[in-house]
Amino acid sequence: MIPLLIADSGGTKTDWCFIDSSNTKHFFTTESYHPENWSKDFEARIQKFWIDHPDYKVGQLHFFCAGCLKDEKANELAQLFSRIGFSNITVKSDLHAAGLALYGKSNGFCAIMGTGSVFFEWRNQNVVSIVGGKGHEIGDEGSGYFFGKLVVEAFENKTLSIEQKRIFEKEIAPNEISDAIRNKTTKNVFSSLPKRFASYSGAFDDFHLQNIELFFDDVWKSNEPLQVSIVGGYFDANSERFIPHLSKKGIHIQNFIDRPIDSLVDYFVRSGE
Fold first, then answer.
1. Which residues contact 69 (CB under 8 A, 6 or more apart)?
2. What pLDDT score does 225 carry?
3. 3-class SS at 202?
4. Cβ(27)–Cβ(16) below 8 Å
5. What's the whole-number mean pLDDT along residues 218-227?
């Protein structure tokens, strides 16, 4: 088979898999390749990696990335890849990655609940009827980032419980939040809080449930039961909390996965695309 390089890039990281001509799979992870991250320093940094891995640039690149739903952004990113030595490039959005990973050639409703969040319908192998996806600065309810935002705001407003405040001050350095705001790294810091608080069983359940309630208040407008499949580490890590809560609202979770890359690789190998 022709070598394939498949990638899924979100707000904080990029998952890759290179499939060589003998069908051997090589998985690896890098920093996020989101269009907002590209700069002269970023390009110089990643060039070193691709110089050390010239074989990965052979064959077809299928790159799925947050922020690339519009053709203009997808084409812009394709040109950047061309500049660092790729020649056979297809760029689509992370919504396409989720749709292919969850449904392939079938149809259904999808949600992404990872660093960011969005809800959409997957029909005829395309993305339609998008709700949410406004970005972390004005939205992203139901995401790992928004959970962190809710907790930080409660801390600043002095509405955390005594136990929650103790945990927060233990896990978060005194100047960490102010530094993140000054350095414009709140997305990374806030979205790290679900994992950092995960070992404190149940201590922040009220914020997790508030978060998912806000998300589905925004995206679920019908009173009829809705079947949804979900991709994202935030939902995957909190599925035992979320699934019973959503079931009471008439929402059935058909399938959920942590990350799309494994299912994407299976899809491309199976379809021979």
1. 93, 95, 127, 130, 133
2. 60
3. coil
4. yes
5. 69
Residues 6 or more apart in contact with residue 52 via CB below 8 angstroms: none
Joined tokens for residue 157: 């407003």
Q: Distance between CA 144 and CA 191 in Å, rounded? A: 5
Query: Does residue 224 carry a pLDDT above 70?
Result: no
List the strands of the sheet with 108-113, edge to edge: 126-132, 117-123, 108-113, 226-231, 251-257
Rounded Cα gap, residues 259 and 78, in angstroms = 23
Residues whose CB falls within 8 Å of the CB of residue 247, separated by 6 or more in sequence, listed in order = none
Q: Is the pTM of this model over 0.70?
A: yes
Burial grade of 135 (CB within 10 A; 0-12, 13-18, 19 or more)? middle
Block residue for tokens 């993140």 = 180
55-70 confidence digits (pLDDT tens)? 999 889 999 998 898 8
Query: CA 268, CA 159: separation in Å to the nearest integer?
Result: 49
**What is the pLDDT averaged over residues 182-188?**
87
The owner of tokens 């940094």 is 45
Residue 113: closest CA among 148, 149, 69, 143: 143
Query: What pLDDT score does 129 carry?
Result: 83
Query: What confidence tier does 13 reach under pLDDT thresholds 50, 70, 90?
Result: confident
